[in-house]
Amino acid sequence: MIIYRSFYEAIKEIPKENQAEVWSAIYELGLNGNFVELTGISKTIFTLIAPQLEANYKKFINGSKPKTKQAISKTEAKDKLNKSKIEANVNVNDNDNVPPLEEFIAYSLSKVHNIDKEQVRLKYESWLVNDWSTNSKGKKTKIKNWKSTLLNTLPYISRIDTNEPKELQMARAQGLC
Q1: Which has the closest alpha carbon to 48: 98, 14, 99, 74?
Q2: Rounded to an integer, what distance in angstroms lies between the CA atom of residue 142 and that of residue 152?
Q3: Which of 36, 74, 79, 131 makes an SS bond possible with 25, Cβ 3.0 to 4.6 Å?
Q4: In degrees, to the nearest 5, what angle opens at C-alpha 135 toward C-alphas 134 and 140?
C-alpha cells in the first residue's frame, strides 16, 4: 500500500475523530481490500483517496503475476526476429515496369520533340545496367514510375539544335506544354 503526502495533507486538516475514521478506512482497504461505510467529511475525503488505493493495488497484483509473455526462449525469439528482418528485406520489385527501348524513346519525343535520341538511348541503357535504378550521389534508387523519372531527367538530356527557345524546350520536358 502506498500512502501519498497529499493524503496526509488533506486528512490532517479535518477534525481528529474524522482523521481516525479515514485512516482506518484507508488501512482496511489497502491491507484487506474491504470498503468501510463512512459519512460526512470522512466519506468525502475517503472517496477521493480510494480510487488511487485501488489503482495501486491493481498494479501490485499485476506486477506480482508471473510473466506469461516469455513462453519461448530468448534464442527462439531472436531467431524469429532475425527471420522477420530477412523476410522484410527481400526485394520483390522485379521491375516488370521496364518499357521497350522504342516506347521509352517515343515517350521522350512526345514530351521534347527535338531530344537527342542517342542520349535517351544511353540513359535507358544506364538505367538497365543499374538494375533499372537511378544513381544520385552514390545512392541507388529503384525506378517505380519510369515515365515520371524520365520527365525529371529530360531537362538534362541534350537536344538537337532547333530555333525553339530554351524556355519552351524546358517546359515541354517537364510536361507543361
Answers
A1: 14
A2: 15
A3: 36
A4: 85
Q: Which amino acid is at 147?
A: K
Amino acid 151 reads: L
The model's pTM is 0.40
Angle, alpha carbons 62-66-70 (nearest 5°): 115
Cell of 153: 531527367
Q: How many CA atoms lie within 13 A of 62 on its CB side?
A: 6
Q: How far apart are CA 14 and CA 142, in angstroms?
A: 73
